[in-house]
Structures are given as C-alpha cells and as structure tokens.
Amino acid sequence: MSGDWDVTPDSSRRERLGFDETVFCASKSVDQIGRIVAAALETQTSLLLTRLAGDKFSELAGRIAAELDYDAISRTAILGKVPASNEAPRVAIVSAGSSDVPVAREAVRTLNYYGRAVHEIYDVGVAGLWRLLDRLDEFREVPVVITVAGMEGALPSVVAGLVPGVVIAVPVGCGYGVAANGVTALHSALASCAPGLVVVNVDNGYGAGCAALRILNAADRG
C-alpha cells in the first residue's frame, strides 16, 4: 500500500456539531495534504490543519502553500479568511511555562479559526505562584479558561480553585523521568480535587479549543 489512500471529508460536521472537520496532518503524506487543500480551494472551503510539520509545509506545492496561513509554533495552518471578532475575549489560555506554548497556541489557533478572541497568558506556572496571582484578574471573569501544563501538571488544579468559569486542563508531554511524556500531568488533572475540572488528552490543544467552542456555542444558543 502506498500510504496515499483516499480521504473522505466529513462535510456535514458543522451542521451537526457547530464546527468543521479539521485535517490532522501528522499521519498524512504531503501528497494527501496537497490534494485535500486543492479540493478545498476548488470549492472555496475554509480549512484548519493541525500537526503540520514544517518540513511537510515546505514540500507543499507553491500555490497551495501560498494560500495557507502557517504558524510554525503550533504547527497549524488555516486556509481561507479567518472571521474577525468584535467581542472581548471569552476564553483565556494560561500556560505554565514556555515549553507549553506550542500546545497552547494550537488551542488559540483553533478558536481563532472560528472568530473567537482569546486572551493569552504564558509562563505563569506554580513554581513561581506570584506570577499567576499577579495576573488573576485578567481571566477570573471569563467563562472558559484553558490551562496548559506539563511536568506534574499542578496549574489546572490551582486555577480551577480560583476562578468560577469552566476550566479545561491540557496536560503536556514535557518534563523529566516520571513525567512520562505527559502521563503524570494527565493523571494529576484526572485526580484533581478541584471540582468540575474538564480534562483532555496529552498535548491536545485542538481538543481543548473544541471543548471551549462547544461551551461558547451552547451559551450563545441559550
């Protein structure tokens, strides 16, 4: 098998769920990604692509690459015009350290793709708790806070004990030894004593962004 098997887009996902299918590029070949983007260009369809490594992006044909808004930090690309937001941010994304920023940016780009403004707060981990407390007023009143942290993953529990909104924990696969590529941070979030903490999988900034979208879309409908 060549690996370039056919792809079948989920064209009705927005009608069902309120957001589009996203192209997960990690396991796709450059040819597959190029054909997906080319088809979207023909139908004037917007796309969000995640886990698009820099070398794969560089190998895409000139016209296709030129049409993509590529962010190397999050390894995401957007095809089409991102809708502008006139509202104040209703989602804050808070990361513990600079190593967590790529995953945090994946969540940011997911929300931006749907025109949702985001307030980004980075490098406020609990190893220097004053950094978090100094900026608490910036996100205490937003309805959704996404926390992104590796190592032992303490940040989500701390934030969820301080703010009234929905807190979504994203464990990150960084840290030494028993951090175990994010498994320790995942278990910490799942075992949190902060009631109501929502947890997504390791490094899943996209999933956290989608969870936030569901919350905001439900609030808008209500």
Explained architecture:
By secondary structure, the chain is of the alpha/beta class. It folds into two domains: 13-79; 91-221, Rossmann fold (3-Layer(aba) Sandwich). The protein is built from nine helices and nine strands. The strands form two sheets. A five-stranded parallel β-sheet has the order 6-5-7-8-9. Helix 5 packs parallel to helix 9 (205-221). It starts with 12 loop residues before the first helix and ends with a helix. The model has no long low-confidence stretch (mean pLDDT 91).
Entry summary:
This protein is of the alpha/beta class and 222 residues long. It is 36% helix and 17% strand.
**How far apart, in Å, are the first and last alpha carbons?**
49 Å
Sheet-strand content, in percent, reads: 15-25%
The helix-strand sequence is HEHEHHEEEHEHEHEHEH
Shape: globular
CATH secondary-structure class of the largest domain = Alpha Beta
The largest β sheet comes out as: 5 strands, parallel
Low-confidence stretches: none
Proportion in helices: 25-40%
The number of domains: 2
User: What's the rounded overall pLDDT mean?
Assistant: 91
- Oligomer category: single chain
The CATH architecture of the largest domain is: 3-Layer(aba) Sandwich
How many β-strand runs?
9
CATH fold-level name of the largest domain: Rossmann fold
Structural class: alpha/beta
Number of helical stretches of at least 4 residues: 9
Radius of gyration of CA atoms, rounded to a whole number: 18 Å
Strand sequence of the main sheet, in spatial order? 6-5-7-8-9
Name the descriptors.
5-stranded parallel beta sheet; globular; 2 domains; 222 residues; 4-stranded mixed beta sheet; Rossmann fold; alpha/beta
